[in-house]
Amino acid sequence: MNDENLIPNEHRTPSERRENAKNAGVASGKARRKKSQFKKLVLSALAMRRDEDTGDGQGAVLHTLEEIGAANLAAKFADGDLKAIELVLGIVGDPPSKSVEVTGKDGTPLVPEPRGYNLDVLTTEEREALLRIGTNLINRKE
């Protein structure tokens, strides 16, 4: 797309804006319908039954793909697969925290070492100048 061909809305007439909004609404509705149809197809496929031999001589048992997928996910969860654990926790409503706490040695908080400035070596004029600079910085923030 060529940025030079783009015209900002403030440079368009009200009728052009209405037409663009109408077209955007139509496209949005089309995309929502397409997504909804795909979701129905997936749910329909998950509900389909499939023969599965249990291996116990009892013959085939019918399961939905959803049941098979849930069983496979549970097996991976039990094996300690981290992606499966995250997915299961997200499904049951207790997703893992995205924040990470960083600590120093032995779990202590990371705090910079305090710097020891000896202001006693400054002259009175230097202290007053430093005070003025600090006051100006504080006033500038407000």
Provide the residue-averaged pLDDT: 81
Shape: flat
Query: For the report, how would you describe the main beta sheet?
Result: 2 strands, antiparallel
Q: Tally of extended strands? A: 2
Overall radius of gyration: 32 Å
Spans of at least 5 consecutive residues with low confidence: none
Overall structural class, as computed from helix and strand content, comes to mainly alpha
Helix content: 40-55%
N- to C-terminal distance: 44 Å
Q: Roughly what fraction of the amino acids lie in strands?
A: 5-15%
Number of helical segments? 4
- The largest beta-sheet arranges its strands as 1-2
What is the ordering of alpha helices and beta strands? HEEHHH
Give your account of this protein's structure.
- The chain is mainly alpha-helical.
- It has a domain of 80 residues.
- The chain contains 4 helices and 2 strands; from the N terminus they run H-E-E-H-H-H.
- Strands 1-2 form a two-stranded antiparallel ribbon.
- It is flat and about 95 Å long.
- The relative contact order is 0.04.
Defining traits:
142 residues, mainly alpha, two-stranded antiparallel ribbon, 2 strands, flat
Write the layout of secondary structure elements.
Elements: H1 14-47, E1 49-53, E2 60-64, H2 65-78, H3 82-91, H4 124-141
Helix pairs in contact: 2-3
